Amino acid sequence: MKPRMSMITLGVDDLNRSIEFYEQGLGFPRYGHEENVAFFNLNGTWLGLYGRQALAEDAGVPAEGSGFNAFAIAHNVESPAEVEAVMNEALRAGATLVKRPQKVFWGGFSGYFKDPDGHLWEIAHNPFAWIGPTDDTDA
Gene3D superfamilies from the xrefs (predicted)? Predict the structure, then answer.
């Protein structure tokens, strides 16, 4: 298998609320929207939003559950100032602050927010290596 992440699909409780958060709030470009799913192009990776119940049914697992999802989605940027700016943009869009941007143990600068369904996003600056698109068409 070739190493790659093609799409992250988040199970959401209110599809329209989540579309508004990602599209209008954060400015993610929406590719399409069917009755119960929406897609956003993230410059090489895609974000899918799908009803929580429907996604669980598709995977054949129970939809119940709460607490820590055991993963976080990371959005890396070029400077600590950009971490602050992106975090503020997310908060204005309706995100919930989890951890204020700050210097972290591994030498970078990062903070966390939750989207309307509680999915964790880390906004980070890594001073040691760029983690993100490298092709100019993906920037």
Answer: 2,3-Dihydroxybiphenyl 1,2-Dioxygenase, domain 1 (3.10.180.10)
Task: Answer whether 46's CB lies under 8 Å from 30's CB.
Answer: no
pLDDT digits (tens, 9 = 90+) for 23-32: 999 999 999 7
* CATH code of the region 70-139: 3.10.180.10
The yes-or-no answer to whether 1-59 and 70-139 have a common fold is yes
Whole-structure pTM value = 0.82
The candidate with the shortest Cα–Cα distance to 83, out of 104, 102, 105, 106, is 102
Phi, psi of 41 (to 5 degrees): -85, 120
Give the architecture-level CATH label for domain 1-59: Roll (3.10)
